Write a sequence for this structure.
């Protein structure tokens, strides 16, 4: 078979792409939605970092209070009117 019957020139890749001015309106809408989602993710990430730093300080304060409270019961109770007359037998 002659080669001219089967071989058609391959289309150039640049010819297959549509020029930017011919993009559909829905493609622009999708791009806008993508930008909004990325902005929300950036804000959420910043807020998460802020909250983590804030709670880290609060956790340190509560840890110190809990440690002090944990060692509080090991001290003997002060003598009072309830323990003076008790029968220890």
């Amino acid at each position: 078979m002659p080669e001219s019957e089967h071989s058609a020139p391959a289309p150039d890749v640049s010819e297959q792409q549509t020029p930017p001015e011919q993009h559909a309106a829905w493609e622009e809408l999708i791009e806008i939605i993508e930008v909004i989602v990325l902005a929300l993710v950036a804000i959420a990430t910043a807020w998460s970092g802020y909250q983590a730093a804030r709670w880290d300080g609060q956790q340190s304060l509560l840890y110190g209070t809990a440690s002090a409270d944990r060692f509080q019961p090991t001290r003997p109770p002060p003598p009072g009117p309830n323990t003076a007359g008790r029968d220890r037998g």
Remarks:
- Residues 25-71 form the longest helix (47 residues).
- The radius of gyration is 38 Å.
- The chain has a mean pLDDT of 75.
- The CA atoms of residues 62 and 68 lie 10 Å apart.
